[in-house]
Amino acid sequence: DLIRLQIRLALRSRGNARLFRWVEAGRTRFDQPPRLRRPDDEAVALQLEQLRWIHAERADDPDDAELAADQAKSEQQVRGTVRRAAGSEHQTALPTTIGTLRTALEPQDAFVSWFSPDASMWELTVTDGGSRRRRVGSEPMIRTLADQLSLSMGGLAIGRPEAIEAASNAGLALQKVLVPGAPPEHLILNPPPGLFSIPWSAFPALTDRAVTVTPSAAAYLRDRRPQRSDTRALVVAGPALERSAEEVRLIAGHYTDARYLDPSTATTQRVLDGLSRTDVAHFACHAVFRPDNAAFSYLRLADGPLFLHDLERLRSGPETVVLSACSAARSGSAGTQLHGFVTALLRAGARTVIAPIAPVPDTDETLDLVDRLHGELQSGASPAVALSRAKSYDDPLSSYTSHAFQCFGWG
Question: Which of 113, 108, 93 is nearest to 222 (CA)?
Answer without folding.
Answer: 93
